[in-house]
Amino acid sequence: MKPMTRSEVIATCESGSKGFRRASMVGVNLVGANLCGAILSGVDLTGANLNHANLVGASLVGALLVGVDLSGANMIGAILSGADLSEANLDGTCLTGAYLSRTCLTGANLVGAALTGAHRLPTDPPIPGWKVVDGLLQRA
Fold this sequence. Notes:
Elements: H1 6-14, E1 130-133, E2 136-139
Antiparallel strand pairs: 1-2
């Protein structure tokens, strides 16, 4: 499957459609894109640049976000359950209220990420500097 281009992603969002299930967006440049409420479940965004993107309330369940640049992105309330964010850059990313259960964060840069109030299961691997209290992340 050929990866979608930035213009294809933006045109789809602007048309009112929010669904991209299982699409390939490998390496796409979506700097500053407005993907608020987008359905990106199962999408392959490996190596994509989503720096300062608006992903408020977006669904990224089971998405591949390996090596993605999400620095400065707004992901309040985003659903990332089962997503793979290995080696992702989340510096300055706002994940307040996001759902991070079963989310792989191996090697991810979380310096400056706002994780307070994000949902995480007590059985999920720990995030250094954070603890789970009543299913929500708090600074340790």
